[in-house]
Amino acid sequence: MSSEFIPLTADNIARFVPLYVSVFNAPPWNDGWTEGVALERLQSFARFPTFDGLGLLIDGEPAALVLGWGERWVKSWIFHIQEFCVAGDRQRSGLGKVLMSEFERRLQEQGFSSVYLHTGETAPARGFYEAVGYKQSFKAVSLSKRLA
């Protein structure tokens, strides 16, 4: 088994769309993504001026991804992870931890001081994030409002 990290860009992000769709259309999310809409989402992220992302290939095939963007804060730059996923048949294998560790290392080299992400309170991913060192911040709440 060979593994390779590749920086995600607007030019190569389409390669990761089937992975994204397969993960987020499966339980517990059951989102209902089409490849076209997922491509539109990921390409829009990749066009952000401070976008960064990292993909993990196993034997040449997309197995995991993490991506988001940086934001200037008062005394430093912070990074917001928008998406993170590992292929369903590779979850709980350690790949997610390896990918997250490598991505955080690269962010630190770029001068980012911290990383933020959002996940559901009862989402299975929450346990993963906590296991790799993420903690609930500021007793934050996520609010939304439907416009139509």
From TrEMBL:
Q: What is this protein called?
A: GNAT family N-acetyltransferase
The scientific name of the source species is Uliginosibacterium flavum
Record InterPro entries: Acyl_CoA_acyltransferase, GNAT_dom
Sorted alphabetically, which Gene3D superfamilies does this protein's record hold?
3.40.630.30
Q: Which residues form the N-acetyltransferase domain?
A: 3-148
Spans traversing the lipid bilayer: none
Cross-referenced PROSITE patterns:
GNAT
